[in-house]
């Protein structure tokens, strides 16, 4: 009997944990798999080990593990597979198929645009847009964001679109905000490419509140709940199950 294990990142902020679990519960309603569980990589419970144990206790004879992460980077490529490898050594008779993260997907760009439009109904053509990503030392992150930036510009027709990161790679988002404000735009839209509220989102909000400028700064909400994401997660689970390669780790060379 197949089980799907959704692996969330985790957050020190309780509301972020609750939002992730609530989202996965809605995703479970759209998937016919008989056993479905959610767990966290870090900072919250249940852990990955507990999630796997719950699946097996419910009768799972095979597990599809889906990382509920936006992009390919160290967590999806290294940290989660390493944990799964160690844990599954205790269950040699249960195959585990590892899926891919959400990745760069045109449907996610549509969600991003929806969040922008929720902030202001009509976005001025000359507005400055800053997309903010979590950041990673993995060079694939910047490659992915270059594609996201390109797709976003293509779909919106907006020209002044930049990318900044919260950590681990450059440009740092605060530096990018300063650079954009030097241009003295009438409007600056700060658009986080993050799933839910959490420490990172709150840190951006604090930074924006400290800025003294004549530019109107609009802070857009996180990606949050969207039916498109449910669909993508279901597709990632199906893809992993169809491959049937145990603890398959995507190769992004």
Automatic annotation (TrEMBL):
InterPro entries: CbiX-like, Sirohydro_Cobaltochel/CbiX
One Pfam family hit: CbiX
Domain of life of the native organism: Bacteria
Keywords carried by this UniProt record: Lyase, Metal-binding
SUPFAM superfamilies, per the entry: Chelatase (SSF53800)
A GO molecular function held by the record: metal ion binding
Protein's recorded name: Sirohydrochlorin ferrochelatase
């Amino acid at each position: 009997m197949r089980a799907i294990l959704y692996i969330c990142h985790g957050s020190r902020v309780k509301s972020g944990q609750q939002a992730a679990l609530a989202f996965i519960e809605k995703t479970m309603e759209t998937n016919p798999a008989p056993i479905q569980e959610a767990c966290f990589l870090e900072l919250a419970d249940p852990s990955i080990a507990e999630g796997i144990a719950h699946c097996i206790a419910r009768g799972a004879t095979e597990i599809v593990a889906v990382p509920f992460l936006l992009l390919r980077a160290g967590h999806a490529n290294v940290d989660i597979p390493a944990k799964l490898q160690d844990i599954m050594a205790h269950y040699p008779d249960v195959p585990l198929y590892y899926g891919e993260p959400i990745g760069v997907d045109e449907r996610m760009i549509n969600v991003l645009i929806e969040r922008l439009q929720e902030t202001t109904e009509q976005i001025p053509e000359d507005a400055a847009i800053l997309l903010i990503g979590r950041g990673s030392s993995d060079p694939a992150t910047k490659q992915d964001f270059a594609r996201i930036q390109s797709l976003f510009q293509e779909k919106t027709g907006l020209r002044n679109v930049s990318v900044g990161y919260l950590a681990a790679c450059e440009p740092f988002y605060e530096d990018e905000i300063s650079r954009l404000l030097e241009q003295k735009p009438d409007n600056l839209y700060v658009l986080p490419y993050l799933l839910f509220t959490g420490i990172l989102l709150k840190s951006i909000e604090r930074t924006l509140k400290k800025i003294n400028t004549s530019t109107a700064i609009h802070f857009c909400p996180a990606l949050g709940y969207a039916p498109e994401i449910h669909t993508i997660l279901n597709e990632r689970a199906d893809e992993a199950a169809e491959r049937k390669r145990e603890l398959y780790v995507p190769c992004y060379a």
